[in-house]
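Our platform keeps sequence and structure together, in a single record for each protein. Such a record has a labelled line for the sequence and another for the backbone structure tokens. This encoding replaces a full spatial description with a residue-level series of whole-number codes. Below, we set out a record of this kind in full and without editing:
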Amino acid sequence: MGRATGRRRTDATTARACPCGSGQAYADCCAPVHAGTAQAPTAEALMRSRFSAFALGDADHLLRSWHSSTRPAQLDLDPGQRWTRLEIVDTERGGLLDNAGTVTFHAHYRDAGRPGTLTECSRFTREDGRWVYLDGEH
């Protein structure tokens, strides 16, 4: 994938099931957040949008949704790694009226044909009124 340019999403992409596992169509779930026409209402919704961005190679959304104090200058996604499934394990706070929250998850992937799982407890906070990813512990 390379630099923070992201892949173009086609109409076929938006009609399919959202990679985040919500059960909704991508167009009705993470696509508006990726396009910037909607904000994630909760920390979990932002976590889901970030997983979908990894699955779709959307480095631009990942950078935009990263807190300014911890955001890298650029993000190089591994084109050989395919994110396949997200499991939300736990959420703490991060709701509509909160300013901070955590989401613990298992993100399943395939790398060079081999399955793997990333487990992380991610911290989210609001910056300029919107949810952003702060950091995480593996």
